[in-house]
Design brief:
37% strand, HNL-like_cupin, 15% helix, 2 helices, binds manganese (II) ion
Length: 172
């Protein structure tokens, strides 16, 4: 092979190789917060998230219980897409500080100890803070009794809108 053509082929191979590395997806980073239940694996549902998140299942699907609980850890700026759950969801923040919003309401700052109640069918998102990791337990009926509807990504403008502290609701 002509030397110039060989070098060209090597350069092309390098471009393909770097592209392949990029396509391999998010890189695992260890959370600088105590995720309490463990950081788990890179979230297999990441296509419905902007940024990188991690999933640690807490309740096996083989145990017969009718609820599901998973710990989700968000890197800074990572957030879910807008979405709803047909039978709702409760988020228990266990570490760090993040953001959450229900459609039509102000963005909320959520911290360790906060309990976020998402009623059935209500559009919302949840995620890390602009500069902070956040870890929450997502508690909801098992997937066959709680269909998610995934919508659009949360834009940077939506994500960075002025936020107010979350206030836990007092159960009636
Ligand atoms: Mn949700």
């Amino acid at each position: 092979m002509h030397k110039a053509r060989l070098l060209g082929s090597l350069a092309l191979a390098a471009v393909i190789a770097s592209g392949a590395a990029f396509a391999a997806g998010p890189q695992y980073k260890t959370a600088p917060i105590d995720t309490v239940y463990g950081q788990g694996v890179i979230n297999p549902y990441g296509k419905f998230f902007t940024g990188t998140s991690y999933l640690q299942p807490l309740v096996g699907t083989d145990l017969g219980v009718v609820f599901n609980a998973s710990n989700v850890t968000f890197e800074p700026c990572t957030r879910t897409y807008w979405h709803s759950h047909s039978n709702g969801q409760v988020l228990f923040v266990v570490a760090g500080e993040g953001r959450h919003q229900i459609r039509g309401q102000q963005v909320e700052i959520i911290k360790t100890g906060d309990v976020v109640i998402v009623p059935p069918g209500v559009e919302h998102w949840h995620g890390g803070g602009p500069d902070t990791w956040m870890s929450h337990v997502a508690f909801a009926p098992v997937p066959e009794n709680n269909t998610p509807t995934w919508l659009d990504p949360v834009t940077d403008e939506e994500y960075n809108a002025p936020a107010k502290p979350h206030q836990n609701q007092q159960p009636k």
